[in-house]
Amino acid sequence: MSKAARRYNSKKFSDSQHNMRAQKPPLRRKKSISVLASFSSSIVSTILLLASAFNILGVEGSIGVNYGTVADNLPPPAQVAHFLLESTIINRVRLFDTNTEIIQAFAHTGIAITVTVPNDQIPHLTKLGFAQEWVRSNVQPYVPATNIVRILVGNEVISNENKLFVASLVPAMKALHTALVGASLDHRIKISTPHSLGILSGSSPPSTGKFLQGYATRILKPLLRFLRATNSPFMINPYPFFGFSADTLDYALFKPNSGVLDENTKLSYTNMLDGQLDAVFSAMKLLGFSDIEIVIAETGWPSQGESSQLGVDAESAAHYNRNLMQHVTSGAGTPLMPNRTFETYIFALFNEDLKPGPPSERNFGLFQPDMTPVYDIGILRPKAKSSIPTNPAPVSPGPGGPKEKIWCLPKTGADVEALQRNIDYVCGLKAEYCKPIQEGGECFLPNTVKAHAAFAMNAYYQGTGKNGYDCDFEQTAAVSNVDPSYGNCKY
Q1: 298: annotated active-site residue
Q2: Annotated catalytic residue 474
Q3: One GO CC term of this entry (predicted)?
Q4: Catalytic residue among 60, 86, 156, 432
Q5: Which pLDDT does position 377 carry in this prediction?
Q6: Which of 58-72, 147-161, 256-270, 327-341 has the lowest mean pLDDT?
Q7: Per-residue pLDDT at 11
Q8: Which of 298, 343, 352, 474 is catalytic?
Q9: What residues contact residue 460 under an 8 Å CB cut-off, 6+ apart?
Q10: How far apart are CA 58 and CA 205, in angstroms?
Q11: Cis omega before residue 459 (within 30°)?
């Protein structure tokens, strides 16, 4: 897998009050299932498409996760996609590259995918021909099966201060947009780029926020003009974790505190994130672009670090991310941007053991690589669990004896609509899994949802390593040592 871009920026700034620093259609069987199952599948697909097409107010519609891959122990992307779809409320994922395996894994899930152009490709993208080829290679083969909604051109480009990358940023975004227009994808996929708080030269109080001198009119104003013209958001990576001190820990963690008053506006701030967002808003307003939506592309809190680090533990991480979710989806907005929700991507999905830097850098994940939660922030669905499903027919080979073959089969009484979703997921993921249950196939009969689900789910289970979580399917399946094969139909 390609490595994700590093999350943090070395350029930092502080202030006296805030101390802030600087997201082929499923294989359809020809009338091979009951009318009820086909109808339910259609409804589910429609709901997924609607959910991704509109900015739903609420947690499930606006909370995403950054899927980094700087690790050597992560589960296969297909398992990750299935886990997010079936076991969590996350329906937006930001990738730090255009990893083909990951993009394909999210096909037919409806999850909104954001992909990223690496910084070193930005100068090449200023040429329309290169931009068109990039779209042909990295986007067109996967849509609409994979719901790609946004392309990010680089990551924290301005803060990294590479003059060539900075100068090429807006021209590259324009060329990429032109390529999308040529492919008739500009209404479906938007172009943006995420920034660290290092783009601000001032942030305290928030009403005085302004962009770095030299970049404001030369780079950021044309960038904002492009975002407005294409109805794209301004994306920012605010991290209260990098801005708190011993005196402002509660302020950073959304805990009760005395607050901070902006003397210019007489508005009081009760959390650091609002102060950071409003500083960005003030800088945008100063250039005349207060109407552009702001998206939080990254924010998070590590669960582990150096033993001497203040506030670096699972309890603090859970408190920050849980309150973050509640705050950005509440509709309260910020003091300068009231009555708003913010599309927000938590960093990160997994702890990543190969990330450079201090231990905290490797411990921003919501989940361990085995997909067990590091802490609970309320994103798991009620029925979701990380343990291996109960085995209806235990398979415990004797000491030294050969392991019995096991199969993944639907549980007794499993809901027919849930089984149909499993069929659509597996068949859409890999057509080979389901060829035998197509009309004329050796396992087409009996033509029932349960029988076809049994074959498809087992094919997936056998093909992905036979791990316990490969036979979860939202708790509709369990492993068995009873061979379900019959006649010419071999499982």
Answers
A1: yes
A2: no
A3: side of membrane
A4: 156
A5: 93
A6: 58-72
A7: 33
A8: 298
A9: 408, 426, 429, 430, 433, 470
A10: 29
A11: no
